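Example record

One chain of 178 residues, shown exactly as stored in the release files.
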Amino acid sequence: MENIFGLLVGIAMGFLIQRVRASSPAVILQNLRLENLGIIKFMATTIAVGMITVYTLNLFIPNLLHFDIKPTYFVGVLLGGLIFGVGFGLGGYCPGTCVVGIGEGRRDAWFALARGVVGALVFTLVYDALLAPIVAMMDFGRITVQDLLHLPAIVPALAIGVLFLVVVKLLPTQVKRA
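Predicted structure tokens for this chain:
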């Protein structure tokens, strides 16, 4: 049953990614240049709806979901974000959008997927020797907003989710240049 649910969610996400044109490198570039905020608004909406849904479900059906909180490695996250962002900007795709691009018949998406697989392989091969010490720098452990604020998990989830939705509503999709 989990696999069917995962497949349906994947199909829905693929449809939505294609609908907001997030599989188009040109539109992705416009978003990275902050000329068109459609993909950014889509991602923020997805995060908000997902956060509110998951934490509300957990509130009413405890132990339905398993939250595997990963440790917060500040330098590792910064380095990973930099590598991901450069690859995203240069390649015009992220992992999800290149799969949708392949489904649309974009040949360049196949190259983005291949580069991602090679990058993941290189990362795996050099992780223990080169990256593990970097990732461990500034290890803050498993922290969450609710732990920092000493609140039930639903409170910051709703606050952050609603804040994201308000910002999405207020931001224009097309940004006019002065």
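Notes: Residues 33 and 125 are 33 Å apart (CA to CA).
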